[in-house]
Amino acid sequence: MELIFKAIVVFTACQRLIELFIAKSNEKHITGLGGKIIAEKNYIFMVLLHTTWLASILYCAFFMDYQIDPALFYGSLVFFVFGQFLRITAISTLGKRWSTRIVILPEAPAIKKGIYNYFRHPNYLGVVLEIAALPLMASFYGIALFFTLANFVILYFRIRLEEHCLIEHNKYREVFNIQGKNV
């Protein structure tokens, strides 16, 4: 199981690097169509969180002694795989409009198809599951707890900003049939 865990960790690191290139390409595409990247004060903290989360897991997986509890490993693996499903489906559904940054294409309606029929933020839910589940596969409780809590703080502010921009520029309230002043 240790070898499987290490392979999953390396796969996740490679996947995140590839996604950064995809995000940069999509940002260029969207801004080329008149879109704009929203200034986000906590973006650097999100980058640092994801980088240190992965670096911590890589370090522990390859340089620390640990024992894997099979029940915890397989239980966490289920949540990790579901998180992967949510993220990959969200990225695929958004296509060229997906990015790691908040990028708005004014007047283009918010997307409510595929996975977005069931979740308003499937990518973020997938990330939440992965951040907790990956370290739990190897009983790295401290990493799971610290980064999950830090991620919740970042997402609280990020989702508010993103939804505010989508309401302002992309008919988000109408597309998702959101009533009231607060999202």
Structural account:
This protein is mainly alpha-helical and 183 residues long. Helix content is 69%, strand content 2%. The protein has one domain (2-175): Four Helix Bundle (Hemerythrin (Met), subunit A), CATH 1.20.120.1630. The radius of gyration is 17 Å and the shape is elongated.
Fold blueprint:
Blueprint: H1 2-32, E1 36-37, H2 43-63, H3 70-94, E2 103-104, H4 122-136, H5 141-170, H6 172-175
Antiparallel strand pairs: 1-2
Helix pairs in contact: 1-2, 2-5, 3-4, 4-5
CATH class: Mainly Alpha
Integer count of domains: 1
Strand segment tally: 2
What is the residue-mean pLDDT, rounded to a whole number? 94
What share of the residues lie within helices? 55-70%
Briefly note the structural class of the backbone: mainly alpha
What's the CATH topology label? Four Helix Bundle (Hemerythrin (Met), subunit A)
| Rg, nearest Å | 17 Å
Report on the biggest sheet: 2 strands, antiparallel
- The H-and-E topology, N to C, reads as HEHHEHHH
Question: Segments where pLDDT lies below 50 for 5+ residues?
Answer: none
Shape, per Cα inertia axes = elongated
Q: For the largest beta sheet, what order do the strands appear in spatially?
A: 1-2
What descriptive keywords fit this protein?
single chain, 183 residues, mainly alpha, Four Helix Bundle (Hemerythrin (Met), subunit A), two-stranded antiparallel sheet, 2 strands
Outline of this structure?
The chain is mostly helical and about 180 residues long.
